[in-house]
Amino acid sequence: MNHWKFSLYTLLGAGIWVTVLTWLGYFIGSNQELIMKYSHQALYVVLGLSALLILVYVRLQPKRDAGREGSGPVDLAAKEK
């Protein structure tokens, strides 16, 4: 990937993330009970979504690699014979 494109996408993603966290800290930070009440639920949602994304990736990956010819490791000794 182009270095400048990567840097731009990283900057945009980090900017969005920092904005969301700052907003949450400003509006919810003063209410400690609310944070404690919903933090466990949010953790379970994040863990569930992460597991789902990993499962989808693992399921789709072999199909994508199977379509490529020569995608496996190369045996140089066999090629020289």
Structure description:
The chain has helices spanning 3-28, 32-66, 76-80. It is flat. Helices cover 81% and strands 0% of the residues. The protein has 3 helices and no strands. With 81 residues, the protein is mostly helical. The chain folds into 2 domains: 1-30; 31-65.
Task: Reconstruct the topology from this structure.
Blueprint: H1 3-28, H2 32-66, H3 76-80
Shape type: flat
- The secondary-structure class comes to mainly alpha
Rg (C-alpha, Å): 22 Å
Strand-residue fraction? under 5%
Mean pLDDT: 83
| Total individual domains | 2
Question: What oligomeric assembly is this protein in?
Answer: single chain
Features:
mainly alpha, 81% helix, 2 domains, 81 residues
Task: Sum this structure up briefly.
With 81 residues, this protein is mostly helical.
